[in-house]
Design brief:
single chain, 206 residues, alpha/beta, Uracil-DNA Glycosylase, subunit E, 44% helix, globular
């Protein structure tokens, strides 16, 4: 079986996942996308409102921040495989708005089967954890971003892992200077991942 067919088959199975309760309110399963042999995999937390509706990971405002950070790092997003640790949107309703809620450890664990399959089939050279939930999934434990960014880590699910802030955190900075600094730091972390990918072996790719 070819690698693309295998990944597409996992994607189809994930559409019907009922291993936690998030599927009941979410619009759809949001699976990863990108080249099936990408050297760099980005893992976010979970779909947001825009991602849940579009069926694509890290789009909308957070996606625009990610695009800016990738430009800082001189990385082509089309060359990356992008996914989330949790594949369904967790939220609470406030009027007509759906407000993001952080997934629980149990919900992260329920989705590990899909993330593990993506990692095995894409076989990246480095994985970037965008935010604390993604870091928890990859490292197998709670992992502080500030204390662990800037160098590769050995994770429970994959190694090496580069941890960094989620692009949405840049949007939460209150002033332009703070947002600029947060964006620059995100870009530096992504640049580190690109350097690791260039230096790493191809993980047994044919």
């Amino acid at each position: 079986m070819s690698r693309p067919d295998s990944l597409d088959r996992v994607r189809r199975r994930a559409r019907d996942c009922r291993d936690c309760g998030l599927w009941r309110e979410a619009t759809q399963t949001v699976f990863g996308e990108g080249p099936h042999s990408a050297a760099i995999m980005l893992v976010g937390e979970q779909p947001g409102d825009r991602e849940d509706r579009a069926g694509r990971p890290v789009v909308g405002p957070a996606g625009r921040v990610l695009d800016e950070a990738l430009e800082v790092a001189s990385i082509d997003r089309a060359a990356l495989y992008t996914t989330n640790a949790v594949k369904h949107f967790k939220f609470r309703e406030r009027g007509k708005r759906r407000i993001h809620q952080r997934p629980s450890v149990g919900e992260i664990d329920a989705c590990l089967q899909w993330l593990r399959a993506e990692i095995e089939l894409v076989s990246p050279r480095v994985v970037v954890a965008l935010g604390a939930s993604a870091a928890h999934a990859l490292m197998g434990r709670a992992t502080a971003i500030g204390a662990n960014r800037g160098h590769p880590l050995e994770g429970a699910l994959f190694s090496p892992v580069v941890v960094t802030a989620h692009p949405s955190s840049v949007l939460r900075e209150r002033d332009r200077e703070a947002r600029g600094a947060a964006l620059a730091q995100l870009g530096e972390d992504l640049r580190l991942a690109a350097e690791i990918a260039r230096a790493a072996p191809e993980n047994g790719r044919a």
